[in-house]
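Issue: ligand-bound run for adenosine-5'-triphosphate - logging full I/O for the record.

Environment: standard queue, default settings, no custom constraints.

Inputs:
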Amino acid sequence: MKLKLAIQKGGRLSNKSIELLKNCGIKVSNGGKLKSEASNFPLEVLYLRDDDIPQYVADGVADIGIVGENVVKEKAKQLAIAERLGFAKCRLSLAVRRELNYTGLVWFNGKKIATSYPRIVQEFLKEKGLEAEIEEISGSVEIAPSIGLADAVCDIVSTGSTLLANGLKEVETVDYSEALLVTSENLSNEKSQIVERLLFRIRAVNTADRSKYILLNAPNKSVDRIIELLPGMKSPTILPLAKGGWSSLHSVVKEDEFWEVIDQLRAAGAEGILVCPIEKMVL
Ligand code: ATP
Ligand code: MG
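Outputs:
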């Protein structure tokens, strides 16, 4: 019995999806084929266009898939979200011509919006009580205003540089997205167990990614204060240094907290601070 995982074949999700499997210790060879099998885990990988992944998983052609939340919402298939994966973060935004004096959402009333996400845009307009026409196009949405196809666009933005290059400016955020692990809603027990094993590994990798192992030296009189500052897993490890009156403290801190904590630790007397990556973390 093998679990069938659908991932994007070439595109913004592919490398990260393959890297995630690799970090989970799962070996898949991909020689540009449509299908490959893991050698050390009951997994078969299918390489597909991201737009097709929700449907394939809902239909049971694949058991699970890695796909952007934006695509999951747009396709609105019967799927379960097993895990938010934290990569391919972007937002879906409304953008208008840069020279336009944009005054607020009511501007969109009676306008034409080009997008590849008609369902999401329609829901947004309804929620805001707006009426606008939606022009569905599948690619290069950002050129629509300059060729006179639409007044505005709704598209994926991460840095905004594509919009800028096309003379557009972002004016409203419609939604946020990141890669999701989705599963079919009717998996056999046996397949659900394989999903659980995979999720266990994914969580170990992602938790580790968000954390750093920190080591530092401090005079014994500062140890209590430093322990207060370290939001460690349980309590930090404290080892005596060869140098009298000094200790070495080890703990785990969250990536996004560590700079702030490090400043406070230094102020409290910590020296020789090392911040190391953690490969896997099982809580
Ligand atoms: P396909 O050929 O498979 O249909 P595509 O062109 O539709 O590919 P990509 O551009 O590879 O799709 O984007 C795939 C997903 O990656 C998007 O649906 C979105 O979730 C995410 N994404 C897109 N653009 C960005 C970005 N600039 N930064 C971060 N994530 C992004
Ligand atoms: Mg696509």
